[in-house]
Amino acid sequence: MRLKFIVAMTDKLARTVKSMPKSPFYAILDYVAELGLDKEVIYLNQGEPHFLTPPHIREAAKKAVDGNNPYTPQPGIPELCEAIAKKLKVENAISVDPGTEVFVTSGAQAALYAALQTLINPGDEIIVPSPYYPPYVIDTQILNGKAVIVPFGLGESLTLDPEEIEKDVTDRTKALLIHSPNNPTGGVLSRENLKAIAEVAVRHQLPVITDECYEKILFDGAEHVSMASLPGMRDQTITISSFSKTFSMTGWRVGYLAASADFVKSFAKIHHTINICANSIAQRAAYAALTGPRDFWADWYRVYETNRKILVDSLKDAGVRIPARATGTFYVMIDITGMNMNSEEACRFFVREAKIVLTPGSGFGPQGEGYVRMSYATQTEKVTLAAERITGSLKKLKRKS
Ligand code: PLP
Fold first, then answer.
1. 81 CB under 6 A from ligand 1?
2. Which residues contact 261 (CB under 8 A, 6 or more apart)?
3. pTM here?
4. Which CATH number applies to 55-291: 3.40.640.10, 3.40.190.10, 1.10.3470.10, 3.40.1390.10?
């Protein structure tokens, strides 16, 4: 009886769900489990800071728990919307009205999905540069839209060719979805490059969704430029950001979207059906995050910077190519084409031979193949050991071939 129900239920699933392939990100964890190595491996696949959320943020949450917690107003608690608008003005050079142009969401993830749902009719197109954060394409497909993939340039620095974008604009195009600092490459698009993209967007009245989750994690003098701050882009840009990475609040589920009042009004209808409002306790904590001290950041930055240097220097010494300079986020991608393996095989190789878990580039779109992603958001001792093991295993492989 139960089996019959399960079979019937499977038949009922949406086509979009049935056709979703298993993510290679999970397949590599299955491989670790299959080899019984879960206690031995170093995990460099994680996409989140390892730091404890700063004390003043935790305190604000504890206080909120003891208060009354009804649904909050639709866009978020007013003082948080005010604080976000102030932050956008001071740190991103974007002027928004806190009452009508800011919306607090359950992380950037919810903002992304609801923003796409606000725009997409079946068959509509979203231009997505690759390699990309997988939900950009998965969300678009779930909504029966079409993700039109354009390649990022993965040379010395991360680049995006405005002409490639312009070629792909059709009357079905609803938006360009950009993401810098970029997961998985760690690359950061330059001001000049973003300006050239903005010119295309203005010329074609093309809305731009910009995911700026990693805006604060920058190295070697890299600059983060918000698309909405560029000439002509304020009302054409949907800016999405998050508390997850900047404040080590991934599990708290709080992020936000800023856009024109017209868009936010429509977005609110979709968001309401999914979430009603973002978690009220997390919203109080987010307010404390934005308005409280940032001194913890210097310590965190030192750790990221040290980890990045250890990894990048040892990989370069071993002759490994790192595309796009990786001057943002806490990820580095390495070129594995010399290993004569695809990215999933290379990840299995690193599990077996180096006891390191990495993320196959194939999960980030067609341009991700030929690369694996490493995250250095972990303790420096682990990164040091991981760098030794990775380069050691590569040298051994070279000797064999
Ligand atoms: N956007 C990018 C590029 C990410 O890498 C992630 C998480 O890893 C998210 C969005 C999700 O962020 P949030 O925790 O705010 O939902």
1. no
2. 97, 100, 101
3. 0.95
4. 3.40.640.10
